[in-house]
Design goal:
The complex is a heterodimer of chains A (227) and B (186). With 227 residues, chain A is an alpha+beta fold. Chain A has helices at residues 18-26, 34-38, 75-79, 105-109, 148-160, 173-177, 194-199; strands spanning 4-9, 47-52, 61-66, 85-87, 93-95, 116-117, 141-142, 183-187, 204-205, 217-220. Chain A has a four-stranded mixed beta sheet with strand order 8-1-10-9.
């Protein structure tokens, strides 16, 4: 069984935000408006975090694209009282909007701030949105699900054609959009896949690994002289 | 007083009805441009997918193109006003503006193909007794809820599990994905 994961090479990331925009367009992520944004309610499943170098202040900036890290031991699912968020058998942390009661426990539990709340009805269904992704209602939590609607379609195709999903058949919007190919997506359970080869690289690290969340989004540090 | 009260009740009643209509609680149903009789066609032993061809090829079953109707209905005399309507669409090369009756909520991923081609589920098990209709339905014959989906998926899971243990496949894999929320919710 597949274990979906992602590798983000920080040496390649230029901080261009193409992944952020691709994600917003793909997943019907709403624009919350200025007032809401000022209250810190921006919804952005993919975010490019910045970090300045401690030794060389203002000389070097590090860009860290941060989707939901799809932890293998997720803190958010353990606090959900209604099983709206859980780790599915393929390692994706699902978010079932119709089950969500909006208690926001998961948001408090997530150490990466990867979950977002719909304080208002920010948008309604209209033409131009991606029909494969439902528009979230007011009062539910949403987050990156590794574009699992693409997996649904890829699996449906493979199922009808009586075969397994081929490598590359399922890819996330951010990985597809990245012009520097800094984001690589694939099956971590397959030792031959590009993503698992890169995940074994000596440059690999995970965000806040000490928490024991075991993220399946793995970062590669900059090469020599970087970071 | 009496007249005023009656007027008030009528106005309030109309208001509530208008609101309910706009909120989608009351719906007038769908009327089709042609009174297509499913019964006549299915009595001729035509299979559902003979006209709804996309059911076997993609996510949405859809209505057939006018050219497919015309393949049978182009020639010969007819007294039927409905067939004349069909021909006028066909001769102008226009598609019939069929209205969609069945619609699942937008958060459900339901592709017809695996259900029709792989699982070989009868169309009627979700769509109801379409073969008895002499005119197009205004509303769906059957209202589906999640229990209808899950009941079938769970029974299917048992079958897959039984097969998997004998074939030494991955029983756990088959079990979990078939009934995983993420498989259908989006």
């Amino acid at each position: 069984m597949a274990l979906w994961g992602m590798v983000i090479d920080l040496d390649r990331c230029t901080g261009c935000q193409a992944c952020v925009m691709a994600c917003k367009a793909e997943n019907n992520v709403p624009a919350v408006g200025q007032k809401e944004a000022e209250r810190g309610r921006i919804i952005s499943w993919m975010q490019v975090l910045t970090e300045t170098d401690e030794e060389h202040h203002s000389e070097k900036m590090r860009f860290i694209p941060r989707p939901c890290l799809q932890c293998d031991d997720p803190p958010c699912t353990k606090v959900c009282p209604v099983y709206a968020t859980y780790r599915n058998p393929e390692g994706i942390i699902a978010q079932i909007y119709n089950r969500c009661i909006g208690c926001r426990f998961c948001m408090a539990a997530c150490p990466y701030n990867a979950k977002y709340f719909n304080w208002y009805t920010y948008q309604k269904e209209k033409p131009g949105q991606n029909p494969d992704v439902s528009v979230r209602e007011k009062g539910v939590v949403e987050k990156c699900t590794f574009c699992h609607h693409r997996l649904q379609k890829a699996r449906e195709r493979a199922h009808a054609e009586k075969r397994e999903i081929e490598p590359g058949e399922y890819n996330t919007a951010c990985a597809q959009a990245c012009p520097a190919q800094a984001i690589i997506f694939g099956d971590l359970a397959d030792p031959g896949s590009e993503v698992s080869k890169l995940a074994r690289s000596p440059r690999a690290f995970k965000l806040q690994e000490e928490l024991g969340t075991k993220p399946k989004v793995i970062y590669l540090t900059e090469g020599e002289g970087g970071g | 007083m009496g007249v005023k009260r009656v007027v008030l009740i009528v106005v309030v009643g109309l208001g509530i009805l208008t609101w309910a209509y706009s909120a989608g609680w009351v719906s007038g149903g769908v009327s089709q441009p042609i009174a297509f009789p499913h019964k006549t066609h299915l009595d001729l032993k035509l299979p559902c997918a003979g006209c709804h061809q996309r059911a076997e090829k993609g996510a949405v079953a859809g209505r057939p193109p006018t050219s497919l109707c015309m393949a049978c209905h182009a020639g010969g005399d007819t007294k039927s006003a409905e067939i004349k309507k069909l021909r006028s669409y066909g001769e102008k090369g226009r598609e019939i503006p069929w209205q969609r009756v069945w619609r699942l909520p937008s958060h459900v991923f339901f592709p017809h193909r695996p259900h029709v081609v792989v699982a070989k589920i009868n169309c009627q098990s979700c769509h109801g007794p379409m073969e008895t209709l002499t005119k197009p339905p205004a509303t769906p014959l059957k209202t589906l809820d999640m229990n209808d989906c899950i009941a079938c998926h769970e029974s299917r899971e048992k079958a897959v599990m039984a097969k998997a243990t004998t074939a030494q496949a991955h029983p756990k894999a088959a079990r979990s994905l078939l009934n995983d929320c993420n498989t259908c919710h989006r």
